Amino acid sequence: MDQVGDGKIIEACGVVGVDRTGTAEVRAVDGIDLEVRRGEFLALVGVSGSGKSTLLHLIGRLDTPTSGSIRILNRELGSLTSYERACYRRKTVGFIFQSFHLVPSLSAQANIALALTFQGTFGAERKRRTAEALRLVGLEQRADHRPGQLSGGEQQRLAVARAIVHRPPLLLADEPTGNLDRRNAADVMNLLREINQEQKTTVLLVTHDEETAGRIADRMIRMRDGQLDGQGDIPS
Question: Which CATH architecture has domain 5-70+82-102+168-229?
Fold first, then answer.
């Protein structure tokens, strides 16, 4: 038996997330129960507005649930102080979004090194990890290029490198191929699978692409109207 969370990295119980626009309220996430095992690659699929990105943001603590419980590595997120939430986002999770969110004035290697600075990693160790991340995503020859000098696929691979350079146990990817053509989208998806398998990083992927999700993930769950449509196929 695993010592942390009995092998579970994510345990969500009765999670509700309400979006408010003026006086209107919409339950974007409506009473969700979810468990994700450590090392699993789970895909959440559904149409726009189904609640999948909202759930991802709640797990990443970018937003706060209206009610319910989310435990990551057996720790209740609702009990974290403001400082502990910041540490959680910096150390426990890595984020990848549809938009790359790179610093345009910095080189590829400087974008990655900046992420390590936020982790408190400096000197030779920061340089080594930056170079390692660039190699992992195949951008070592583009280290001195700024984002504007990179293709869309290269920019997203750089965003992946930045997200995993601090070796988080949990990687959250929100429509990471939404701005890419089919070939670059496939490259990024294969890269996420490689990271999952080789580094044992748990990946929670949000996507509308069921075909790709079904090919690459260990398990796929559909979301509809803020609720999970079954728990997907669990591998033996």
Answer: 3-Layer(aba) Sandwich (3.40)
